[in-house]
Design goal:
Blueprint (H helix, E strand, L loop, with lengths): L1 H12 L1 E2 L6 E4 L4 E3 L9 H7 L3 H22 L8 H6 L4 H7 L1 H23 L10 H17 L6 H26 L8 H21 L9 H7 L3 H11 L3 H12 L5 H28 L5 H14 L42
Antiparallel strand pairs: 1-2, 2-3
Helix pairs in contact: 3-6, 3-13, 3-14, 5-8, 6-7, 6-13, 7-10, 7-11, 7-13, 8-9, 10-11, 11-12, 12-13, 13-14
Length: about 350
């Protein structure tokens, strides 16, 4: 999706002269032909020809702020009539406790991706380091991809609870390793984490056995990217971070086709892709946590995409064709009732 958008944006900006069919570029004030000097008087074409990193970064920060306020207003609280509430009602006691992890983990991931956008915007401020910020863009992809994997509407409530346990296991294990390193290798520093990890894994194994499936692993980068339809972008970002010469050359080639400001063009590529990932994660979260996303979210997305200069096509602006109601997968066993413990965290409060 993002790859197609970048290609379309490149074609839009590499305008053809009406007189001689030469290439037209924005020179800071006008959209001019490189061959004959013809200047376009079309305000819309001139606006789309600009690549101003400062304006794009300002637009990204505003967009992130508006979406973040919307996400924070929802929070990790399950709303009456939402897909989240309907799923929780399908589960029995222990599974409901595991499912209660889902809103918290999804909220945390959306929130984390918003912080990564702030870091990206600061890192891209002129003079832009250009390639130094691709790792931050990749961090946005990881967090937003995780939201879409966890809230995949095609899986059952019990399977979603199992995915939440897998994410929790990954988080606890990572934190335990950090504590071990900070304590100089003293094993007793992992004590509380070790108990939580063991309890979490035991519950995951029990639920997986009931479902007749294996305990899932958190997807790798390539798999998470597929949930955002951006596998090509993920491979490009990872290759740039790894310093592969062909990836750096390809990024430069993409940037050179976007206009007269190379560093601004590099910023444009990252701003466009990360804004789209963040928007999709926020939309996915809202669709699962609310009965319907609502007109306020739609208007925020439209306004944000306009300010950044993203294309008008319906594939890019996915919310225009997305179904308002989220299908809830059929449970794999008879419906039970959940206990009061369904609002508790499985191992600890964050």
């Amino acid at each position: 999706m993002v790859e197609a958008r970048v290609k379309n944006t490149a074609r839009d900006r590499a305008f053809v002269c009406e007189r001689c069919s030469g290439k037209m570029l924005y020179d800071g004030e006008n959209l001019s032909c490189l061959m004959c000097g013809y200047e376009s008087l079309d305000d819309e074409r001139v606006r789309r020809g600009r690549v101003n990193p400062g304006e794009m970064l300002d637009a990204l920060v505003r967009f992130r702020s508006e979406l973040s306020h919307f996400v924070e207003a929802i929070g990790p609280r399950v709303t009456s009539g939402s897909p989240a509430e309907r799923e929780l009602a399908q589960l029995e006691n222990d599974d409901a406790v595991a499912h209660a992890l889902v809103p918290n983990l999804a909220y945390q991931s959306v929130f984390a991706s918003g912080h990564a956008l702030i870091a990206l915007a600061r890192g891209l401020e002129p003079p832009a380091p250009e390639y130094g910020t691709w790792a931050t863009s990749n961090a946005v992809l990881q967090a937003t991809g995780l939201v879409n994997w966890l809230l995949d509407p095609s899986i059952s409530a019990a399977e979603r609870a199992l995915r939440a346990l897998a994410i929790e296991d990954q988080e606890l294990t990572a934190e335990a390793q950090v504590m071990l390193g900070m304590s100089g290798g003293q094993q007793d520093a992992q004590g509380p984490f070790a108990n939580a990890i063991a309890s979490n894994r035991a519950r995951a194994a029990q639920l997986a056995s009931q479902l007749g499936i294996d305990v899932p692993s958190v997807p790798n980068s390539d798999e998470l990217a597929s949930y955002l339809e951006c596998s090509a972008e993920q491979r490009m970002f990872a290759s740039i971070v790894a310093g592969r010469p062909w990836a750096l050359l390809q990024a430069t080639a993409m940037a050179s086709s976007l206009g007269a400001h190379p560093s601004g063009a590099v910023a444009a590529i990252q701003v466009a892709t990360t804004a789209a990932w963040y928007a999709r994660a926020a939309w996915t979260f809202a669709r699962w946590m609310l009965p319907t996303p609502g007109a306020d979210l739609v208007s925020t997305l439209e306004r944000g995409y306009d300010s950044i200069g993203l294309p008008e096509d319906e594939r890019t602006r996915f919310w225009r064709t997305a179904a308002v109601a989220v299908p809830v997968a059929e449970p794999r066993r008879p419906r039970g009732t959940h206990s009061m413990r369904s609002s508790e965290r499985i191992v600890r409060s964050r």
